[in-house]
Amino acid sequence: GGETAVMIANMFPKRFAAAFGWAADPGDGVAPLNLKHVPVMVSGGGKNASEFQSRAKEAGVESIEMDGDADANAIADWLADKTRVAYPERVTVIPGRTFPTGTSWFYFSPVAEGSGARVDGSFDRETNTVSITAKGITELNLLFSDAMLDLSQPVKVVVNGVESVDKFARSINQFLGFVESTRVDASRSFVASKRYSVPSLEEDN
């Protein structure tokens, strides 16, 4: 169960507040960068879990914890204060076999595993700006919410250094479409979106 729990959290990080493995050895094939905002606790892990934690630390992800003595009570205590980050301000997506293909506020078409694709995204409410650095994909869809940005003002989007500025009208039809596609839930909603082309980075040319 622990291996599967961590793998599913990696595939759909926007859905979860945390993941744990008890008497399990998770981490094989999991990209730690996808779990920046999803803490992981592992008790009783072996080689896969240790290597997973090492890869996480090398990537600057400090949310992977190992506690060989943690029992059910300790894990319950650890989980007690974990809450899902509905709109993470800084995210990284490393595509896997099929998922992930995005995060809570952007998505893109599936790409081949091992293609080297990666997307780093951030938004800044103070400047009403979204910044995306991506390789291995040609376009992506950004979703917009008043919880992220001030949609009454123009929004600047920078994708691989190319800037565009748009004024987004809040759309009930888009919101309902997101409901149907399960891109929104009880604590996260979007009312506008736009598809952006992804220019090549200089390093890819």
Annotation, overall tally of beta strands = 12
Helix coverage percent: 10-25%
Q: Encode the helix/strand succession as letters.
A: HEEHEHEEEEEEEEHE
Structural class: alpha/beta
Shape: globular
Q: How would a crystallographer describe the biggest sheet?
A: 5 strands, mixed
Number of helices: 4
- Spatial sequence of strands, sheet with the most strands: 4-7-8-10-11
Mean pLDDT across the residues is 93
Cα distance, first to last residue? 43 Å
- Fraction of residues in β-strands: 25-35%
Cα-atom radius of gyration: 18 Å
Low-confidence stretches: none
Task: Explain what this protein looks like in three dimensions.
With 205 residues, this protein is an alpha/beta fold. 20% of the residues lie in helices and 27% in strands. The chain contains four helices and twelve strands, in the order αββαβαββββββββαβ. It has helices at 2-11, 47-58, 72-80, 172-180, and strands spanning 19-22, 40-43, 64-66, 90-93, 102-103, 106-107, 118-124, 129-135, 139-144, 155-159, 162-166, 192-197. The strands form three sheets. It has a five-stranded mixed beta sheet, with no helix packed on it. A four-stranded antiparallel beta sheet has the order 5-6-9-12, with no helix packed on it. The longest helix is centred in the first third of the chain and has 12 residues, at 47-58. The model has no long low-confidence stretch (mean pLDDT 93).
